[in-house]
Structure formats: structure tokens, C-alpha cells
Amino acid sequence: MRYLLDTNVIIRYLNGDADTIQLLVTLARTASEPFFVSTVTQMEVWDGMHRAANPAQVEREYQVFFDDLTLLPFDSDVAKRGGKLRHDLRQQHIRARDRAIDLQIAATALHHELELVTYNDRDYDDIAGLSIYQK
């Protein structure tokens, strides 16, 4: 399996959540490649880092974590996929307006054919074709 980690999973891992650490250890055993992360997720994590008491120290710790992942850019192809996804949701009268970041992450997973690992299934459960890891 190939996994894209959602922001909430990474934040819990970086905060030392034992269940999330165990989840990633378990998934790593079945993963065919290192974990993937969207640069959109990386942006969200860096945002949180700036709120830390010692941002420079936290940045070093976070960078070590990100160095072991495969970063996927939010590029033109992913943006096109995200635009179509957002359009399709609006056509179905499904909330899309305030979901830009979630839709960017979903578009990344869809474009690269990755299974999304998230704790917020409801943020993604209305996105057709998106594979969400079931804990």
C-alpha cells in the first residue's frame, strides 16, 4: 500500500500520541514505499510550529520527520484535479467553499493514487474515488 498522511495524523505523531505512533509503525510494515505527504500538509504543520514556545527547536525536530517522507507538491496537475473535484462537489450541492485545504489534500491523494490516512474521515467521506484508510 501507498499512504498519504493527513495533517491531523502528523500533528498527533509529532506530539507523541502513542496510538498514532503505533498506527504509523503498523502501516510502515505494509507500506510499499515511504509515507507521502502533501506540501499543503507541510504548510499546515509549519504554521503550527510558529506557535511553539521555541519555534527553532521545533523546526529542527519537524524537519527530521519530514526528511523521512516523500513530499508531493501541489502542482498544476494536482490543482487541475482539485478544481474538478471542487466543481463536482458544488454540482452535487455538497459543501466545497470552506474546504480548500482538505480538497487540496484529497486531490493529491487521488492524483497519485494514494490511500489517505486521517482521523477526520467525515472531512473526506463525500469525495468519490478517494481511498481512506480504515483504522
Structure description:
The chain has 135 residues and is mainly alpha-helical. The protein has one domain: 5'-nuclease (Rossmann fold). The protein is 55% helix and 9% strand. The protein has helices at 7-14, 18-30, 39-49, 55-67, 76-91, 100-112, and strands at residues 3-5, 36-38, 70-72, 115-117. Helix 1 (7-14) crosses helix 2 and helix 5 (76-91) packs across helix 6. The protein is globular and about 45 Å long.
User: What is the arithmetic mean of pLDDT?
Assistant: 95
Helix run count: 6
Shape: globular
Element order: H for helix, E for strand: EHHEHHEHHE
Which helices and strands occur, and which strands form pairs?
Blueprint: E1 3-5, H1 7-14, H2 18-30, E2 36-38, H3 39-49, H4 55-67, E3 70-72, H5 76-91, H6 100-112, E4 115-117
Quick description:
The chain is about 55% helix and about 10% strand.
What keywords describe this structure?
single chain; Rossmann fold; 55% helix; two-stranded parallel ribbon; mainly alpha; 135 residues
